[in-house]
Amino acid sequence: MAKGGVSDYVNGLSTDAQNFIQESQFFLRRCKKPDRKEFMQIAGSCAIGFAVMGAVGFIIKLLFIPINNIILS
Fold first, then answer.
1. Do 2 and 10 contact (CB within 8 A), yes or no?
2. Fewer CB in 10 Å around end: N or C, the chain?
3. Prediction pTM value
4. Can you give the pLDDT at residue 40?
5. Cα(16)–Cα(7) distance, integer angstroms
């Protein structure tokens, strides 16, 4: 490794870290808190997703109980 190789590597890391921090701050400044209507829409979509996934799991469980009983008996 060249004599200045380690210091160049460390300088590159610090530059990358500074760029990441600047970009993160820019992103956070542009973000906004959702209003009540937007929040309720997101919460409703998540609730529907949970309900659908629960129903699919329940139906699969109901289908496999008789199949499992046939296989084991």
1. no
2. C
3. 0.55
4. 98
5. 14
